[in-house]
Structure formats: C-alpha cells, structure tokens
C-alpha cells in the first residue's frame, strides 16, 4: 500500500467538519465598504483599526517613496544596504514607544519566529499563554527551548511554573491584545513576575499598537510601561498603522543582539524603502489620531450595547472586550457558518472563525471595528444579527 498522504481525503474530512478555509476575492482597496467575490459588502473583517490603509497621505508618501527609492530593496539589508528611510523608521519607532532602539521586520510572523529563537534556545525555558497567536506558537517550537504553556491569563499557574524552573534563562511570551478574544494581558503583573523570577517578557502588541495607550503608543503605554529592562515589545505595522511590516523594541543591547541573531531579519530581502516612507507618515497620523481612537471607542460601546440583548435571546456569547476585536461566540461550526453566510446574504462580511484557531465549541464571528466605520454601519450590523437570531 502507498504511504503517500491522500490530501483529497483530508480535505473532504475538513469540509465535512465545517473547517475548510476560503480566501474570498477582494475587488477593492481595504475599507469599510468593499467588493468581495464581486458583491458589495459592509466589511467587519479587517484589522485596519484606524482606517489608514487607504489614507491619501499614506498613498502619497508611498508614491513619493517609489519615485525616490524604486519598488524593491534588492537584497538583505546586510548585503544590499540599510536604506535611510528604514533607518529613520527604526529610530522613530523606538522614540515613539519609549525604547532605546528598534529593529524592523518584513511581517509580524517573521518578527516573532526570528525574535523568540534568538532569545531562548536549547536548555532554556519558555512560558507561553495558551491563547497566543500562531506566530508565537511556531516561534516557541522553533526555539527548541523547553515549553511550558499556562492557561489563558492564569498568572497563578504561571507563577508556579516559574518558581519550579531551574533553567538559567527564562522567557515569558504573550500577546498583548489576544487576536480572537480581544482581551488584554495584564502586563504590569506579568512584568512583576518576570522581575521576581529573573525572566524576560516578550509582548506581541500586534493589535494594540496604534490603538491603545497615549497617542496610540501601544498596550505597554496603556499600562504606563515602556520597552526597557526585562520588557521587549513587538508591534506590527500592517494593522492600525495601515501598511505592512513589524518591529521589535527594547534596550539597546537586546536589539543589538537581535540584529546579530534574528534569522528572519538577517536572511531575507529588506523591506522596500517606499513602504517605510509610507510608515513614517503613518506614525504622524497615529500620534495625532486621538480623535480616531475616541470614535473607535464610541463604536465599540455602541456595538456591545446593541448585541447584548441579541445574545441573551439567541444563546450567543459576547466576551468582555474593550478593544476593536469583538468576538461573537456562536458555538458550533455549522451554526457559525450559517450566521456568517446569512450576514453575507445581507451584504455584511464578518468572518467565521472555527477550530483549530479557536477551541472546539467556541466557533465565532470575529467582528473587527475600524475608525473608518460610521455609527449607522454599526446599527446595520446589529439589525442584521437581530433578524438572523429570530
């Protein structure tokens, strides 16, 4: 008999379980109103939290960057050169979040799978929240360090794991804002544990940077913290910042070490300077974007108030979240897909999220809000869900 995997059978099994993923064709630029598979929809699917992805200032900056620097970087920055816009972006990111230094990466996924193995390896111990993003999960596996997962936000379990550890090097890794639940990690308490047990704390702030904290400086700033000492912060630039890429910020010696050891920064073609031109403009808009963040919080409160009675009637669950990520937990895979399809029939796109991305029995709509949404669009979503729940 053949030992070759029959992928067709596996795909059929996924389909039967309601777990097949699908990439829908986006026919317009990212925004609240889009063409998806040729159909006009009101989108609640994007992480463009401040509505900057199609901002005219960023489009103009990217255009000017292409005219000055072309469309590609040509090689790794260690071979082809570190372009001035990329250097300036790292400097300004570090200043913005209150760190000594920052290092730029092509994506958040590449950042995490480069950072973690550079900070911890064989013989070291990692402590990871069970609901961390896939990039952190993969990064932990790549590190070859001993891995201890603790139940979501359960610091008492984490404290016990740290106390029992005898490894010379310890690293705690956590999302700041969890991508499927929208809740925040208690960073001050985590940092206190890191101090007490002589550990590093790496925070993935993909969904907090640009949205939380004074002037959008991130989740650490929201708690009055800066990436110094034991605290290292990774932030992405393709969500609230509206472009693409990521960065890590911390003390100078930490970032200097990552420059020498993070393989996904060293052995990859550099980020095109035209994009960093746009990101330099994005930082200005983020810093001046208090009005956008206030509007976003208004939309979040409006949505939650409208969904609460619907959840009671339908038996759905809306977990606590003060962030732009609002998970509406339906439960079963088929039921969740049916709700998502019914919304799409009404011209509203809110993606269905199923296992293994979320635990079994907790399939959900991941409703993602943006400052580019209006109050009437929030009401349209609430009205549609109320009709579906009948």
Overview of the structural elements:
- By secondary structure, the chain is an alpha/beta fold.
- It folds into two domains: 23-50 and 289-389, Aspartate Aminotransferase, domain 1 (Alpha-Beta Complex), CATH 3.90.1150.10; 56-287, Aspartate Aminotransferase, domain 2, CATH 3.40.640.10.
- The protein has 15 helices and 13 strands.
- A seven-stranded mixed beta sheet has the order 3-9-8-7-6-4-5, sandwiched between helices. Strands 1-2-11 form a three-stranded mixed beta sheet. A three-stranded antiparallel beta sheet has the order 10-13-12, covered by helices on one side.
- The mean pLDDT is 96.
Short summary:
44% of the residues lie in helices and 16% in strands.
Using the coordinates above, name the CATH class of the largest domain.
Alpha Beta
CATH architecture of the largest domain: 3-Layer(aba) Sandwich
Q: For the terminal residues, how far apart are their CA atoms? A: 52 Å
Number of domains: 2
Give the overall shape: globular
Give the spatial strand order of the biggest sheet. Answer: 3-9-8-7-6-4-5
Strand content: 15-25%
Largest sheet: 7 strands, mixed
For the secondary structure, the number of strands is 13
Low-confidence runs of at least 5 consecutive residues: none
Judged by helices, strands and strand pairing, the structural class is: alpha/beta
- Briefly note the CATH topology name of the largest domain: Aspartate Aminotransferase, domain 2
**Helical residues, percent:** 40-55%
């Amino acid at each position: 008999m053949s030992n070759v995997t029959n992928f067709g059978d596996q795909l059929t099994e996924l389909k039967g379980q309601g777990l097949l993923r699908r990439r829908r064709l986006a026919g317009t630029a990212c925004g609240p109103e889009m063409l998806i598979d040729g159909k006009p929809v009101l989108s609640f699917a994007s992480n463009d939290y401040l509505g900057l992805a199609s901002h005219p200032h960023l489009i103009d900056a990217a255009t000017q960057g292409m005219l000055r620097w072309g469309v590609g970087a040509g090689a790794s920055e260690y071979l082809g050169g570190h372009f001035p816009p990329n250097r300036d972006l790292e400097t300004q990111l570090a200043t913005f979040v209150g760190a000594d230094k920052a290092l730029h990466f092509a994506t958040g996924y590449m950042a995490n799978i480069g950072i973690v193995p550079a900070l911890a390896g064989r013989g070291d111990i990692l402590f990871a929240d069970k609901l961390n993003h896939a990039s952190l999960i993969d990064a932990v596996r790549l590190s070859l360090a001993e891995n201890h997962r603790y139940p979501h936000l359960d610091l008492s379990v984490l404290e016990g794991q740290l106390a029992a550890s005898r490894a010379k090097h310890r690293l705690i890794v956590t999302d700041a804002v969890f991508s499927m639940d929208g809740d925040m990690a208690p960073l001050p308490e985590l940092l206190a544990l890191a101090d007490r047990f002589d550990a590093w704390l790496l925070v993935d702030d993909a969904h907090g940077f640009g949205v939380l904290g004074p002037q959008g400086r991130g989740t650490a700033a929201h708690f009055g913290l800066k990436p110094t000492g034991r605290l290292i912060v990774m932030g992405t630039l393709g969500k609230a910042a509206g472009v693409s890429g990521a960065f890590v910020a911390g003390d100078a010696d930490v970032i200097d070490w990552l420059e020498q050891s993070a393989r996904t920064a060293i052995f990859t073609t550099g980020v095109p300077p035209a994009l960093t031109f746009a990101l330099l403009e994005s930082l200005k808009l983020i810093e001046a974007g208090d009005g956008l963040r206030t509007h976003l919080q208004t939309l979040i409160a409006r949505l939650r108030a409208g969904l609460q009675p619907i959840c009671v009637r339908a038996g759905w669950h809306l977990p606590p979240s003060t962030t732009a990520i609002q998970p509406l937990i339906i439960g079963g895979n088929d039921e969740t897909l049916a709700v998502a399809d019914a919304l799409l029939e009404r011209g509203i796109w809110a993606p269905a999220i199923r296992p293994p991305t979320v635990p079994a029995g907790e399939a959900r709509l991941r409703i993602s809000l943006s400052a580019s949404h209006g109050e009437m669009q929030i009401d349209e979503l609430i009205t549609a869900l109320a009709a579906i729940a009948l």
